[in-house]
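Justification of computing resources. Each target in the renewal requires a structure prediction run like the one illustrated here; the chain below, 312 residues long, is used simply to show the kind of job we budget for.
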Amino acid sequence: MSPLSGACIMITILTGDNDFELQRALRRIEEEFDGRAEKYDGVDLDLKQLPDLVMGITLFADKRLVIVKDMSANKTLWNELPAYLPRISDDVHLVLVEPKLDKRTKTYKDLQKNAAITTYKAWGERDSLQAEKWVADESKRRGIMLDAKNIRLLVARVGLDQWLLDQALYKLSFVDEINAQTIETLIDANPTENVFNLFEAALGANKAAVTQMIRVLSLSEDPFRLLGLLSGQAFQLAALAVADKSSAEVAKDIGAHPFAVGKLATHAKKLGRSGARSVVAAFVEADSGMKKSVADPWLLIERALLKVATMK
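Resulting structure tokens:
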């Protein structure tokens, strides 16, 4: 039985690396509270302040919403918190915001018995369908007319960062008619999208475009990161070339976005297994050259892409 069994305890813990959903949940809690929330940074709190946070009402309100961020970073306070749990007033709703919560601590285990804990996980590469569903739900809630095709395009262009997707939907909310051209005009492409365009230019034997895009990307991108993204594209191409499956099935198998993988399908079919292996080899050679510092990283990347552009 919980040590606080029978008491009306209000403790909420918001944790996880999805800052967008965590902040949205916190905002909902504040909006539903009839009053003004008390907010504290746990790192700055002193142990002697702890009783005042969890016990009793104030002169100004009958109910209290107390929000403390990163209390677990304050080891003294965190270790002493379990002793105060039985003293938390029924009139206090304590909300602990802990993006990085160590579940091995005794305090967490005590809180687990008495708190409502919600974990918000950031989306990974395999969550593109979840992102598309979220965009579909959000666009409907905001009255934005987006069909399935444009939702896929938007997620492929923006990526899986919910803050950026939220900003993109905000921009689109001012547009009467949304189509592919509208999205490409108004919404900035994320680095992955820029890399895909660069890789596609090489696959399409457009050497001039490759050279121009390298010049632009070199002004703002890290060459090592860019090569990693290009190598990922080469891996997707190879997976398509060797698999006897549809692009959607391959995308699911390797945890990639089906929209992006689908755009590589024609190139994979044209190159075949041998050609795809040659593409991968070009980037393996560039990676080896960068590790050995045999030449300027951007020159090595451009050389690899131009090799791809000459493959038949």
